[in-house]
Specification:
There is one protein chain. This protein has ten helices and 15 strands. The protein is of the alpha/beta class. The chain has two domains: 168 residues, Medium-chain alcohol dehydrogenases, catalytic domain (Quinone Oxidoreductase, Chain A, domain 1); 134 residues, NAD(P)-binding Rossmann-like Domain (Rossmann fold, 3-Layer(aba) Sandwich). Strands 3, 4, 5, 6, 7, 14 and 15 form a seven-stranded mixed sheet that branches. A six-stranded parallel sheet has the order 10-9-8-11-12-13, with helices on both faces. Strand 14, helix 10 and strand 15 form a beta-alpha-beta unit.
Length: 340
Amino acid sequence: MKAAVFQGVGQPLVIEERPEPSPGPDEVVIKVGRAGICGSDLHMTSEPGTTILAGAIIGHELAGEVVALGKGVTSLRIGDRVAPLPFVGCGRCAACGDGRPHHCAQARIDVVTGFAQYSRVGANDCVVLPPELSDEDGALIEPLAVGLQGVRKAQMQIGCRALVLGAGPIGLASAFWARRLGASRVVVAAHSRRRERFAYELGATHFIAQSELADPAAAINDALGGPPEVVFEAVGQPGAIGKAMEYVAPRGVIIGLGFTTGSDVYSCSIALMKEVRLWFSMVYEKRDFQYTAEVMAAGERAPRAMITDTVSLEEMPAKFESLRGHSADCKVMVSPWGSN
């Protein structure tokens, strides 16, 4: 099979021929139909100390068709179209039974290879796609599920005021679910206006470009009708949690969704005086995948607005490198079998 292979920091991915994977017990092999490029893919291939090993194949936002069943698999059939969680757990522990394979002591992520024509995935970790959904829809489920779990953890009250910091796919997913699940007003705040239209298409009621304002907090409060009761931090850079604490209302909630590998510093006094509740959210549970698939199958098409380009596997390395700068793209999909 063809696969996009990591060569090392500072080097582009290279398309290579690799052996097709075989499923282990409780695993299946899928023919990858679509795979989305995530910001964490860029981090994992660029930041010293967090990079994957040379020779690895990545890609964790994927959907495809089951083409081989491992020993013991009875929940799936050949031909099923699925969106897999990108963690292969043991399938028998409490975490796996609860739909949290990333908390399994035996969890593996190295076998999931979205940027290839085939991938091994855990049978217990797959959600069967309703017939109404395309492979592109299926590959969107993963980033949407990240936002859904964050919104669930916020335990928002109906009619609350919500702020999303960051307009990447995770920030946009958070805005989508916050608006859908009860927030009366949702402000998306980002450094620039590059993704303003995506924010509005996914449900934001207001958009604020922080670099254009002397006092972003005042603009946020004006748009919301008061300070935000919930802040979703989806920037993933040092200082973002501190900004969220400045913006949030007294006794407000901050959900940490951004991922930064560096240390961060924020004012404990502000957090204390405001009695802030800070809760970090790591990916999702299987039920987040299932609910996202159901919502999209019921006719919700707004998330598709995030998809700005689809490239073939051969075109992917150049496109991947272009995303390291200030790209106009939002979500790029990879089609391992061709760009159509």
